[in-house]
Design a protein that fits this description.
The chain is an alpha+beta fold. Helix content is about 40%, strand content about 15%. The protein contains ten helices and twelve strands. It has helices spanning about 10-20, 60-75, 115-130, 145, 180-195, 200-210, 255-260, 270-280, 285-305, 310-320, and strands spanning about 10, 25-30, 40-45, 50-55, 85-90, 100-105, 165, 170, 225, 235, 245, 250-255. A hairpin with a 6-residue loop joins strand 2 (about 25-30) and strand 3. Helix 9 packs antiparallel against helix 10. The radius of gyration is 20 Å and the shape is globular. The relative contact order is 0.13.
Length: about 325
């Protein structure tokens, strides 16, 4: 399966000529603010087109191909809109090399009256879509489409390639069960990276949490493709006023992890949660599991931004095993 057929180029000029013709030229470059990892620009071309470009150091090219893979996977479900990927590549530049990702430029519109309800229904549809193909690696097929993702089968959770959560790598090697995946590919690596912040007593509680994670989490009825970094900054209104998803850290996991993330930094509108539960009812006890899902995101922030997140991390650990 060709999971993400994104075009790759060795220069921005080559990319533009291939996409828009030999006479193409950039007439105007406008910096687009937002995000703290990449530089973003609106490129206005002499063809009348405007495209969106992300740029970073040449060594960061993998983050752009990973982002493209996540957006492509979401688009493949046919449930919720994402910006169209044009291509990715690297450029040696005149002074310093860089990597780039070119996408459709989105003219954000005014939100529809049913913006939150529509987002909820479309997100629920994405979570309910067959996600088995997105876990395939090296010719090995996932089994979720055959058995509903029952515990004990192979390759139900993960993603066909590793990607990034913010600026940190995210291991998506497939696991048989959700709890195994969340323990070994999400929480454990983040706790290992954060070890210098922890006391011996903290480490004991962390070990207890990881060893008994199945006391707190449940397996989903079916694996779901999740956005993976679903806070308000990664949702925008498209020209039609409907929500679009951007900047994914996608993988196949438990839909609850996406929903929990929406509640972490300010939350979405009440109408969103009501509509989501109608479209995709949650298993009892979600509120008791929510903080464990968000522990991963807070650990990532601790490892990215420092000690100001330590208190929130330890508070959640203590909530479950204190």
């Amino acid at each position: 399966m060709n999971h993400c057929p994104v075009l790759q180029f060795k220069s921005l000029a080559e990319a533009l000529v291939t996409l828009f013709g030999k006479s193409v030229a950039i007439q105007r470059t406008d910096r687009v603010m937002g995000g703290d990892i990449n530089k973003s620009y609106a490129l206005t071309l002499n063809t009348g087109d405007t495209i969106f470009m992300k740029a970073n150091e040449k060594e960061k090219a993998a983050s752009f191909t990973a982002e493209a893979a996540g957006l492509f996977a979401i688009a493949q479900t046919g449930t919720i809109r994402t910006p169209k990927i044009l291509c990715a590549g690297t450029d040696d530049g005149e002074e310093v090399g860089y990597s780039f990702l070119l996408m459709e430029y989105i003219n954000s519109g005014e939100r529809r009256a049913d913006y939150w309800e529509t987002l909820a229904r479309e997100l629920a549809a994405m979570h309910q879509a067959d996600a088995s193909a997105f876990v395939e690696r090296d010719g090995t097929e996932g089994t979720a489409k055959n058995d509903g993702g029952a515990a004990g089968t192979s390759n139900n959770f993960g993603f066909y390639e590793d990607n990034f959560i913010g600026a940190r790598p995210q291991d998506n090697a497939p696991s048989a069960t959700w709890i195994e995946f969340f323990r070994d590919k999400r929480l454990a690596p983040q706790f290992k990276a954060a070890d210098s912040y922890l006391t011996s007593a903290d480490r004991s509680r962390v070990t207890k949490l990881l060893d008994h994670l199945d006391d707190f989490l449940i397996e989903p009825k079916k694996p779901s493709l999740v956005h993976g970094d679903l806070w308000s900054g990664n949702v925008m209104a498209g020209p039609d006023g409907k929500a679009m998803l951007i900047d994914p850290a996608a993988y196949v996991g438990h839909a609850e992890a996406d929903l929990a993330m929406t509640e972490l930094f300010g939350g979405f509108a009440t109408a969103f949660y009501q509509a989501y539960r109608e479209a995709n009812p949650l298993e009892p006890g979600y509120e008791k599991r929510r903080d464990i899902y968000n522990l991963y995101q807070l650990l990532n922030h601790l490892n990215l931004f420092g000690q100001s997140y330590l208190g929130a991390v330890l508070s959640i650990v203590d909530e479950y095993v204190g």
